[in-house]
Write a structure and sequence with these properties.
Elements: E1 28-33, E2 37-42, H1 45-54, E3 56-60, E4 74-104, H2 113-124, E5 134-140, E6 145-150, H3 155-162, E7 164-169, E8 172-203, H4 211-222, E9 232-238, E10 244-249
Antiparallel strand pairs: 1-10, 2-8, 2-9, 3-4, 4-6, 4-8, 5-6, 7-8
């Protein structure tokens, strides 16, 4: 049927079409480090590239002390680039959990997470509040939301249709939001190597000094411009016979 014409003025936010349904990924790469290795991050990328191009480095273990040539002790270490895999394409299949709800807009009551979960479970387990027996509950610490899963079918769907509900917690009533609980499964993931421009991997470091002394020695050596180095931003060392894991995050600097 035809509708009467009506002039309307849009007063809202405009977004680019490309930004709709876009998934933003934050890199958090766990990089294994073998024994006898070190990761050194310089403040400038050109310093790291220069160290890599030199490949071999003779590091003095005297920690800068003035010694005669025959008294000096040196070790040879290898410098290599750091390549980490980053997603180049990602496909996720979303499915709704038919027995679960996502509870958000929760009040800040100054109580522990466990106490809040107990109060929510007590409220939503009652049929007069539209709920039923709660099978499991989970607090999502990164978002401050709660996932509740019921033992019966149909309960979650009814609550989701309501959208919002007033929850009685202690002596107060608080309006919370009820949303579907979605599960995501990765159906396609493609990776491509990415070069860390400011970080260098050092290999072949012998176990001749204690951990702190070796870390200081490496930093002293590689921050000297006369040896091709520069200002060191961070350094991690794993002694021989041990294993380590370095965590790479997005470089926002």
């Amino acid at each position: 049927s035809s509708l009467p014409e009506k002039k309307m003025v849009f007063k809202g936010l405009v977004a680019n079409k490309e930004d709709v349904n876009k998934l933003m990924l934050t890199p958090l790469i766990h990089y294994p480090l073998p024994g006898g290795s070190a990761l050194i991050t310089f403040e400038k990328a050109e310093v790291a590239q220069r160290i890599i191009e030199m490949k071999e480095h003779m590091v003095e273990l005297s920690c800068g002390e003035e010694l005669e040539e025959f008294d000096r002790c040196r070790v040879r270490v290898q410098a290599a680039p750091v390549e980490i895999p980053l997603p180049s394409a990602l496909e996720i299949r979303l499915t709704q959990n038919s027995r679960s709800i996502l509870v958000s807009d929760l009040p800040s009551l100054g109580i522990s997470e466990e106490a809040l979960l107990d109060k929510l479970e007590l409220f939503f387990s009652k049929t007069k509040n539209g709920g039923s027996e709660v099978e499991s509950r989970k607090f999502l610490g990164d978002s401050g939301q709660v996932v509740l899963t019921f033992t019966q079918d149909g309960v979650a769907e009814t609550l989701i249709e309501r959208g919002h509900i007033e929850v009685l917690i202690g002596k107060g009533k608080y309006k919370v939001k009820i949303s579907p609980c979605m599960n995501g499964d990765i159906t396609n993931l493609q990776l491509q190597p990415s070069h860390c421009p400011r970080t260098v991997l050092l290999l072949g470091i012998p176990d001749v000094l204690d951990e702190e002394s070796m870390r200081d020695t490496l930093e002293i050596h590689f921050q000297r411009a006369s040896r091709g180095g520069g200002e060191v931003d961070a350094l991690a060392y794993v002694p021989a016979g041990q294993m380590g894991v370095a965590v790479f995050v997005e470089d926002t600097g």
